[in-house]
Amino acid sequence: MAPIVDPLLSDSFKKLPGDTWGERYNQALDIQRGKDDAFDAQHPIASTGLKIAGGVGSGIGLVKAAPVIGNMVLGNGGRSLPARVAATVGAGGSTGFVQGFGAGEDGVANRLRQAGLESVTGAGAGLVMMPVAAGVNAGVKAAARGLIGESDDALSSMTREGRNYVTKELADPEQVGWYRTELDRLGPDAMLADVSPDWQGVARGAAARPGTRGMIVDPLNERSAMANTRLRGDVEANLGPDPIPSAIDREIGQSQEQVGRQYAPIFAERSPFDFTPITDDLDRQITTLRGDAQRQLQRVRGMLNEFGGEGVTSDPSVAFQTRQAIDGVLATEQNPKVINALTDARQMIDDALTRSVPRIKEVDASFSELARQREALATGRPILNNEASAMRPVELQEALVQGAQPQGMQVGPSAVPTRMRQAALGEVHRAIGTKANDTTALRNIVRGEGDWNREKLGLLFGQDNADRALAAIDRETVFGDTANRVTRGSDTAMGTRFTKFLDDIENAQDIPGDTTLTGLGTKAARSIIRSLTQAKASADTGKIAEEVGRLSVAQANARDQIIEALMKRGKENVLDQQRLGVISAILQGGGRSAYPSLGVR
Question: Which among 42, 143, 173, 518 has the fewest CB atoms less than 10 Å away?
Answer without folding.
Answer: 518
